[in-house]
Give the backbone structure.
Amino acid sequence: MKSEYTYIDQQLLKEMIIAGAQSLEKNKQIVDALNVFPVPDGDTGTNMSLTMQSAIKEIKNNQTNSLEEVANLVAHGSLMGARGNSGVILSQLLRGFAKGLKGKEKANTRDLAKALKMASDTAYKAVMKPVEGTILTVARESAEEAIIIARKEKNIANFLEKVILKGDETLRRTPDMLKVLKEAGVVDSGGKGLLYIYLGAFEVITGEKLETDDPEIPHQTIDEVEYVEGDIEFGYCTEFIVDAGRNNPDIDRLRNTIKNYGDSMLVVGSDNIIKVHIHTNNPGEVIEHGLKLGYLKDIKIDNMRLQHRNQNFKENDKYLPKEPQKKYGFITVAKGTGLSNIFKDFGVDHVIEGGQTMNPSTEDFLKAIDTIDAETIFILPNNSNIIMASNQAKEVSKKDIIVIPTKSIPQGIASLMAFNLENTPKENEELMKEAIKTVKTGEVTYAVRDTSYNDITIKKGNILGIGENGIQSVGKDIHKTSLELLNNMVTEDNEMITIFYGEDVEEKEAKELSDKLEEVFPECDIELYYGGQPLYYYIFSVE
């Protein structure tokens, strides 16, 4: 028997979000398996789940006093933990949902419908070229149906059931909207992940038992997750709660007043309670501004510089002279010891471990940015699925960040080779973006399931040669498939082929392939490097 809920409050919303995250976590491998390409890089479910877990961590680590605040914390947490395109889009859906609940203490079906519609609108605006047949379509059509349903349906459980059924119906039609889904015989993975979140929330409303202590979504406190590395600009982690009694404090005014005192600021509240968290060098002055609004409780001030020195056994750090600020800094993404070392040889300051199967989050980029003291920092994501998270970090950071939209390791290397220390940031940006157009990327991996692609029959275990336009060759032999791929890539205008061999390839095998390529392409210079990348036997750069 369905529940008779006619509205949700902040506690119920919190339980629904947690259950939605748990539902997705339990089914993330199913979502991963729906990735279009039949290669071992399905990560949509993993990325969405990690994004949700970051949102859960936020609401578990912070005191929440309103429906609006729960929604805002979920939006903030998901943004900071967003990974890959699917995770970033999910964070934008949650951000829009929070905007739709602004000012709400309770939400009925009409309020929820409005929030779902605003979620969809916000996500569409965040994507430069929205593609139908994706999570965006599932979110939009279910939200539009929610508006219609809410006109008559007051019962929350009935409302959600109908919204989910509409979302499922839309999901089933995604292969008709995207040819690549139809050829692979799958529905959209992001849309499927979104439905798992909805289903988890629905189970809470219908009264089924909720296990809030899921081991995949651990309980943590701010102290446990606080991690400081590199130079610390603002040394005191300052936290307190303001109780304004019967007064109605201006939270925005307090936020604007103290925002220039430091960073990592969180000023949230409802009615007469305000929670403040900020990293600052002047905790006393921040506390003074809080005292003007009411009495304080739960005051906590930690010296992060001292914690940092104790953690690293560097008691004399404060006496060391500070390095002068550099003109340029670089952050890139790579997975494999060989590739990481190559980028470091080019002068990259911070290599974030990740790639197709492990997309870094916005927070990963922000942590890397904080470790670099440079006037301008370039980010090279080296994967199309990481560009959005890079741009999110750029928007959040106060530093001067330039994202070069590199979609592969060869593009990242080519852009670094075009960089000139004597140029202005704008000149370098133009040169680096132009350089990525001069290189072609090829990858060799294996199929993890039977499928078809562009009328090509693919069996599980087949070797796949993937070019910039998709799968170019299919076979049973790694070297034969590699040669077929390169025959499709190399033209008379090309002069160099660079080989990066992975962790599953012996150096002797890679050398044999290199020698063969010298015979087949005598006009090209062949260079061989150990990349150490997992899953991909070879990455080729053709210039």
